[in-house]
Design brief:
This protein is an alpha+beta fold and 77 residues long. It has one domain. Helices cover 21% and strands 52% of the residues. It has a four-stranded antiparallel β-sheet with strand order 1-2-3-4, covered by helices on one side. The mean pLDDT is 84.
């Protein structure tokens, strides 16, 4: 099982993306992406989204780096 963590720093909060993948010889058996928002002021973490669609975490990280906070507006709602 392989776990990768990506932290995207912002001014008011950080977006932490944790992707867990388990593969065998035939392909992907298990994938889970969890997006957590951490307040920089208080350190409180809140799970914003979970996804089991392979590649969803990388797509979200790319959008946040490209669009900034506006990409996370739909997660906060």
């Amino acid at each position: 099982m392989e776990t990768t963590t990506t932290t995207i720093r912002g001014l008011a909060f950080d977006a932490i993306l944790t992707e867990t993948t388990h593969k065998d010889a035939n392909g992907v058996l298990f994938y889970l992406a969890v997006v957590t928002l951490r307040s920089r002021k208080t350190g409180v973490e809140r799970v914003a989204r979970r996804s089991r669609i392979p590649g969803a975490g990388k797509a979200l990280a790319r959008d946040v780096q490209r669009l900034g906070v506006r990409a996370l507006d739909r997660l906060a709602a």
